[in-house]
Design brief:
By secondary structure, the protein is an alpha/beta fold. It folds into two domains: 175 residues, Aspartate Aminotransferase, domain 1 (Alpha-Beta Complex); 264 residues, Aspartate Aminotransferase, domain 2 (3-Layer(aba) Sandwich). It is 40% helix and 17% strand. The strands form three sheets. A seven-stranded mixed beta sheet has the order 4-10-9-8-7-5-6, sandwiched between helices. Strands 11, 12, 13, 15 and 16 form a five-stranded antiparallel beta sheet that branches. It has a four-stranded mixed beta sheet with strand order 1-2-3-14. α3 packs antiparallel against α11 and α13 packs antiparallel against α14. It is globular. The chain starts with 5 loop residues before the first helix and ends in a 5-residue tail after the last helix. 50% of the residues are buried. It binds pyridoxal-5'-phosphate. One of its GO terms (cellular component) is cytosol. Pfam families: Aminotran_3. Belongs to the class-III pyridoxal-phosphate-dependent aminotransferase family. InterPro entries: Aminotrans_3, Aminotrans_3_PPA_site, PyrdxlP-dep_Trfase, PyrdxlP-dep_Trfase_major, PyrdxlP-dep_Trfase_small.
């Protein structure tokens, strides 16, 4: 329990200066970027460089599902560090074995084998490679308005402007339009229409690209940073049917939606479907030590019984990361965090956001499940004109972000959306405080509404 002292604040200022001198930050123009210093974290709260206490409704890129500095996980990392800090992937390590067992038990169906990576992007890279080797087919289908990671192939399957900006080599990737009712690509006005039309579009894409050339379809079970647009009823079941029908490996990217975030251990549980490969990271150990992985079906595993898998990572199944995963999963089970995530979504966040939508003309749409929600801001509810373009920013969104911080929140703002993604074990009182801060900031957004 670090005290906020003048020394701690002074150390934060030194760190900020050194950062500006020497740290190269992700996704930023380095010149104007002024990162926030964090000098302390605890539970659902962080303290900025001035010592101000902020409610962390971002969960640090939707990552700290168990909140900051969970004592059981901190203790497990310390205990692991005191025995074995690192062991190469070809050796057995008890933390890795136990983490793999727990994850295999939690993932649906016959996803019983776990390949560990360092994070989400490399999990997707490896899942696609497994699918390509298993099927002998190269093409990969992926959705527009998606995010799958910042490395070469992961950013290529990503369907947002970050792909266009950072890479232009397609490497066999073909994009299709997802089911997204609020901004339907198919002019749908009902969920049923959207499901039917989006699936027809997907089947047409498969047929026209040639099923004999498509190895995998990678899809976020609930697209996260692209907008937390929960698929309409029947869509994911339909995707599972189409991929099975055409011999395409279905890779469910659960890097953000998994590990209780969406009110179930995995978002695919909402539809009772089992993908052939499921990728995870973030919530597996709340990011206390970097870890990701691929859960692999028995069928795909069999391909590699006699044939070597052509890939690996020095830190695959790192003991510190796996010890953190074991402790995280056990804490989530003991403290019933997944059930709590579902309850918070159904009883507090959902009803509160519905009220905010009725009250604020700047709110175009609210949607989500569990502790995974988006508030989509518009300048006009009729035309649904976004308050910032997809992939961009605007003075209006900058003002809203400023208002959220001023109200006392560390928010997750993406383009024209505010994401409400608290830790799954946030207290009801803290969550209500955060929603009141949101209400306050939305009045600023209302000022940018046009007729
Ligand atoms: N997939 C999804 C759905 C994500 O949200 C992210 C990160 O936000 C990634 C993959 C990439 O994960 P990482 O940043 O750990 O490489």
């Amino acid at each position: 329990n670090t005290e906020i002292t003048a020394e701690l604040i002074a150390a934060g200022k030194v760190a900020h200066e050194l950062d500006r001198e020497h740290v190269f930050h992700s996704w930023q123009a380095q010149g104007p970027f002024d990162p926030m210093t964090i000098i302390k974290t605890e539970g659902s709260w962080v303290w900025d460089g001035e010592g101000n206490k902020l409610l962390d409704l971002s969960s640090q890129l939707v990552n700290t599902n168990i909140g900051h500095q969970h004592p059981k996980v901190v203790a497990a990392i310390q205990a692991q560090a005191a025995t074995i800090c690192t062991i190469a992937p070809q050796h057995v390590n008890d933390a890795r074995s136990e983490a793999a067992k727990l994850i295999a038990e939690l993932t649906p169906g016959n996803l019983n084998k776990i390949f560990f990576t360092n994070g989400g992007a490399d999990a997707n890279e490896h899942a696609i490679r497994m699918a390509r080797v298993h099927t002998g087919k190269h093409k990969v289908l992926a959705a527009y308005r998606s995010y799958h990671g910042g490395t070469h192939l992961a950013v290529n399957v990503t369907g947002d402007p970050r792909r266009v900006a950072s890479d232009n080599a397609t490497d066999g990737v073909v994009h299709f339009f997802p089911a997204y009712l609020y901004r339907s690509y198919f002019n749908s006005t009902t969920e049923a229409e959207e499901t039917q039309r989006a699936l027809r579009h997907l089947e047409d894409t498969i047929i026209l690209e040639g099923p004999s050339s498509i190895g995998a379809l990678v899809l976020e079970s609930i697209p996260g940073s692209a907008g937390i647009y929960v698929p309409p009823t029947g869509y994911m079941e339909g995707v599972r049917e189409l991929t099975s029908k055409y011999g395409i490996i279905l890779i469910a990217d659960e890097v953000m939606a998994g590990f209780g975030r969406a009110g179930q251990w995995f978002a695919v549980n909402h539809w009772n479907i089992t993908p052939d490969l499921l990728t995870f990271a973030k919530g597996v150990n709340s990011g206390y030590v970097p870890l990701g992985g691929v859960a692999i079906s028995e069928e795909i595993f069999e391909t590699f019984l006699q044939r070597p898998y052509p890939g690996g990572l020095t830190y695959s199944g790192h003991p510190l990361a796996c010890a953190a995963a074991v402790a995280t999963i056990k804490a989530m089970q003991e403290e019933r965090m997944v059930e709590n995530s579902a309850r918070l979504g159904a009883e507090i966040i959902g009803p509160a956001l519905t009220e905010l939508k009725a009250k604020h003309p700047s709110v175009g749409d609210v949607r989500g499940t569990g502790c995974f929600w988006a508030v989509e801001l518009v300048t006009n509810q009729e035309t649904r004109e976004p308050m910032a373009p997809y992939g961009g920013s605007s003075p209006a969104m900058a003002a809203v972000t400023g208002a959220l911080k001023k109200a006392g929140m560390l928010p997750f703002v993406n383009f024209n959306r505010i994401h409400v993604v608290p830790p799954l074990n946030i207290s009801d009182a803290d969550l209500r405080t955060g929603l009141a801060m949101l209400d306050e900031a939305l009045s600023v957004a209302d000022g940018f509404v046009t007729d």
